[in-house]
Amino acid sequence: MNLPTYDFLSAPLWLITVLHIVTLTLHFLAMNFMVGGIVIILFGKLNDKWNNPVIQKLIKLFPTAMAATVSFGVAPLLFIQLVYPKQIYSASIINAWFWLWIVGIAIISYYFLYGAAFTKKMALGRSSVYLALALIGFLYISFVYSSTLSMGERPDIYKALYARVQSGIALNPDIGSYIFRWMHMLLGALVVGAYFVGWLGKDDERVFKIGKTFYLWSMIIAMLLGLVYLFTLKAILVAFMHSAAIWFLFLAFILSLVSLYFYSKKKFYTTGILMVISLLSMVSIRHIVRLIHLEGIFNPATTPMKAQWSIFIVFLICFLFAVGIIWYMLTLFFTKQQQAA
Amino acid sequence: MNYPFWDVGIGYGILMASIAVIHVFVSHFAIGGGMYLVIAEISARKRNDSMILEYLQKLSKFFVLVTVVFGAVTGVGIWFIIGLLNPSATEVLIHNFVWGWATEWTFFLIEITAALLYYYSWKKISAKAHMFIGWVYFGAAWMSLFIINGIVAFMLTPGKWLVTGNFWDGFFNPTFWPSLWFRTGICILLAGLYALLVASLSKNKDFKTRIIRYNSLWVIIGLVIMVPTLYWYWHAIPSSITTAAHQIMTMPIEAIDLAMWFAGAIFVLIIIFGFILPRWHHFVIAVVLMLLGLGTFGGFEWMRESIRKPYVIEKYMYGNGLEVAKTQQYEDEGYLKQIVFRTGNDGADLYRHACRSCHTINGYRPLAPAFNGTDKIFIAGMVKGASAIKSKMPPFMGTSQEANLIADYIYQRIDQRPLNEVYPLQGVALGKKVFEIRCGKCHVMGGYQDNSESLTGLSDEDYNDLLDNAGDLAEQMPPFTGSDIERKALIEYFKSLDKGGEK
User: Fold this and answer.
1) What is the spatial distance between Cα A217 and Cα A260, in angstroms, rounded to a whole number?
2) What residues of chain B lie within 8 A of the CB of A312, using their CB?
3) Topology (CATH) of B422-498
4) Helix, coil or strand: residue B317
5) Out of B94, B124, B343, whose CB is closest to A163?
6) Phi/psi at B159 (5° precision)
7) Among B219, B318, B312, B231, which Cα is nearest to B270's?
8) DSSP type of residue B204
């Protein structure tokens, strides 16, 4: 009996790539708001911060941001598994325990966020402990993600590791190849967090100032770390320089710098647009780096395409419906709330 | 064999169940609970019942904390665990159903947004708008079930997809509809059980009586839907699979029996503490009901998972990730050539990919008790004849040399003393044990592949001849390699059958 095959893509690769990049950017936005926001709340110097309404609003928004992080994280995980199953599954099996713990730690961190949000009278003690614990959880999750996905690009590493350890306790040992990327992303999270802190606190000069300081300095440090990361690319640096990634890098760099100006002028819509395009560019760079790393090992363009257009159209209709209904519900929520007020 | 193998001390079944059963228990509540909240709200608003509305508001907080956090993240957890335990099967599912999953994701987005808005908008927006959001939540959650159900049901009954490879043939497979309605029944049952848990904490006795009765009705409705749809589901499964479950590996039957006992216990407890003595409904009873609900649902999932054996995707991929389509390739080239991730220990690599996803040596579904006191030739024979064992095992399609390597790997890890020392028995008792160990995996006296009739009335010489030529009797039968003590004891046991001895 000729059984159906499964080694195919059910839509053109470019379409899957676009969806992956867009949804991953949304995931990063939500996650960065949360992680960056927590760091700024915990370490930003602000007198009587726990009674500050902006800080309280931020803390109350974190669980929703976490919901968005999880929801927007599902889609890119699905698409990356679709295109790079061999790399993703292999790397995750090598450090299976660390990978699996992401689930438990995400749940616990999520509850800490709710703990902080539901604390009736926010106090330094309880709220900061909840937030700090949630932050530790997110640092763990982001580190394991960086480690695993970096390892997925290096079959030589995960094959050699597996030959030594089969019990799923081996983290990517080539730490130099991803530690700076991870730190660059964390500082990037601070930039996004600072953007939202500044936006929500635009009428509170003290909060705005903290946001601005974090926005500026985390951007500078993120850029420096990004530069260091570039040099860790070593063997593929030349290929990187000759790829479209360099243009995306240039674009992200310019837009980020320009956004500083608009931030200081409290033009948050413009700053936001520039920041999102910057983030999109950086996610695209990440995608190109993956392709360069895998050059000669795996080229996703060689995977045969067997389109499933009928279900794709169903997906598209449902997606548009989801956007519409979510928009409508949010309108209902905010308009009626305003009317009630 | 394209992936590394996660060699962890815990059984794969336990790892899978630890995330999946808990997730489905919460995610189905997330659907039924949504319906419960909005219907109860409509009814309470019609009667202007502020106590019920206050209770529903409390329940919706509990609902968000359980479903949006635990339910959603454990749902992602299922992705994590299936990718670790059976990456090959996950790859098949993703490639074939990616747009199904993507569509489900759109409903997931609606569901999460609506759940949060529903909770945060109590008393903040109009009743009509609030109930609208509630309905949107329920609709999206049920659609999520609709889609995931298609993919999960596909694994047991891929139906025409095996021929056409068409998405819709796989999705609307033979068990799609009964499974969908059965799961809808479970959703309603769980909505009632979770609501009873929250209601059991109420201090107002009159209110408690009222709400306990109302919630109990949900449980009964859930059970009423579940019973016929389970019957429908069972009969939608190809009879070859259900017959094998009755005759060869009865685990699915035991699982579903257990589920039905639990469901029966729920029914009895609900009648007593839901309708007759609602004031006595205590938190402890609510917890017991929850555990029974978990048992009922867990039993069903256990049945669904185990009845699929030896496949993970019926007639397409075996539980150990081997592909039916590559049978010829495995037979021609052996397994080792297909294993991409090698450790330098061929026996270990072969054992992991052929056996380890369902068995450990001493822990989960252990091999040691089955092989302690035996020998490499016997173990290799059992490996080669795996598909004949009274259990639903994937066939061994590798070479004889590879079977020997697996046997050697297992042999090094079991009790190597002679069988009569491992089991300090004598005479007929020892013979019976020898039969259990060496013959009983494929032949059950008075049961599966029973050949007891051919063993009666023979002379010592005949028995010895039979054992000498055992390996030639059938292709999948190993030779008798037991010691003289075992042989003597086994013959004694055969003879005792003649005299009406215990089988």
Assistant:
1) 11
2) 99
3) Cytochrome Bc1 Complex; Chain D, domain 2 (1.10.760)
4) strand
5) B343
6) 55, -135
7) B219
8) -
B99: which chain A residues are within 8 Å (Cβ-Cβ)?
A: 10-11, 308, 311-312, 314-315
Domain boundaries, chain A: 13-330
Strand partners, B323: B317
Residues recorded for chain B: 503
Q: What pTM did the predictor assign?
A: 0.93
pLDDT digits (tens, 9 = 90+) for B128-167: 999 999 999 999 999 999 999 999 999 999 999 999 999 9
Q: How far apart are CA B181 and CA B228, in angstroms?
A: 10
CB contact under 8 Å between B162 and A308, yes or no, is no
Identify residue B302 by its one-letter amino acid code: W
Q: What kind and span of H or E run contains B313?
A: strand B311-313
3-state secondary structure of B302: helix
- Cα dihedral value B231, B232, B236, B241, nearest 10: -10
Residues of chain B with C-beta less than 8 angstroms from the C-beta of A103: 19, 73-74, 76-77, 80
Measured between CB atoms, which of A11, A74, A93 is closest to B3?
A: A93
Q: Is the peptide bond before B310 cis (omega within 30 degrees of 0)?
A: yes
CB A288 within 8 A of CB A248: yes
Place of tokens 């999948």: B476
Residues of chain A in contact with residue B352, where contact means CB-CB under 8 angstroms, are 166
Q: Which of B216, B194, B209 is closest to B60 using CA atoms?
A: B194
Which tokens go with A107?
């749940």
Q: What is the pLDDT of residues A10-28, one digit of tens each?
A: 999 999 999 999 999 999 9
Task: Tell me the ipTM for this assembly.
Answer: 0.94
pLDDT, residue B392, reads 83
Roughly what angle, to the nearest 10 degrees, separates helices B12-46 and B127-156?
A: 150
Q: Report in angstroms the alpha-carbon separations of B291 from A18, A77, A144, B72, B248.
A: 45, 33, 34, 21, 30
Q: CATH number for the B324-411 domain, one of 3.40.50, 1.10.3470, 1.10.760, 3.30.60?
A: 1.10.760
